[in-house]
């Protein structure tokens, strides 16, 4: 069985267990033996779910550590290969000194680019959050303005009605 198929079956099994857990809350008081069974099934389903979640997190951490380890080795290997290439070019290339200087500058720029990229991502994330907050406040303002207009309209109607009544009272006094 392929790993993808195993994962799919595990997910389906977990969904079935979670459905049983959800359904167990809808039993009536007359079904107490079934409720005990369902409570036990709920507990076992929750325990299985938690253990699966922990296993997933553990595997995720392992994979992340392996990737970081591989990246470290790749960077070291890249540096070693660059040094070997420099030595090879020094043997055949009359412009090796200039090439070496340019490569060192590229390495320096690469090191400077990494934190700048991270900073850029952070600023973009902050921008999106602030923009979202701005849009929410703009919507809230629009709703409040609409409410204000409605209240002002009602107030004007009531005042006009009162003025008409007063005007009729004055007319009736004549």
Please explain how this structure is put together.
The chain is 93% helix and 0% strand. By secondary structure, it is mainly alpha-helical. Helix 1 packs antiparallel against helix 2 and helix 2 crosses helix 3. The longest helix has 78 residues. The chain is flat, with a radius of gyration of 36 Å. About 3% of the residues have low confidence.
Highlighted features:
mainly alpha
H and E string: HHH
Averaged pLDDT: 84
Backbone structural class: mainly alpha
- How much β-strand is present in the residues? under 5%
Number of strands: 0
The biggest beta sheet, please?
A: none
Cα-atom Rg, whole angstroms? 36 Å
Uncertain segments of ≥5 residues (pLDDT<50)? Answer: 26-31
Overall outline: flat
Report the total helices. 3
> How far apart lie the N and C ends?
101 Å
Draw up the topology in text.
Layout: H1 3-24, H2 32-92, H3 96-173
Kindly summarize this structure in a few lines:
The chain has 174 residues and is mostly helical.
């Amino acid at each position: 069985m392929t790993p993808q198929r195993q994962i799919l079956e595990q997910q389906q099994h977990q969904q079935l267990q979670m459905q049983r857990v959800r359904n167990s809350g809808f039993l009536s008081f007359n079904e107490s033996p079934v409720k005990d069974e369902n409570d036990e099934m709920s507990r076992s389903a929750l325990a299985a779910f938690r253990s699966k979640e922990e296993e997933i997190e553990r595997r995720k951490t392992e994979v992340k550590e392996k990737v970081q380890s591989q990246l470290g080795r790749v960077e070291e290997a890249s540096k070693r290969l660059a040094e070997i290439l420099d030595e090879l070019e020094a043997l055949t290339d009359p412009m090796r000194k200039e090439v070496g200087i340019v490569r060192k500058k590229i390495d320096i720029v690469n090191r400077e680019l990494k934190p700048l990229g991270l900073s850029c991502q952070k600023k973009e994330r902050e921008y999106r959050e602030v923009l979202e907050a701005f849009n929410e406040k703009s919507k809230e303002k629009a709703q409040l303005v609409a409410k204000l207009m409605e209240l002002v309209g009602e107030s004007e109607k009531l005042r006009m009605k009162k003025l008409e009544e007063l005007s009729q009272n004055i007319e009736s006094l004549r």
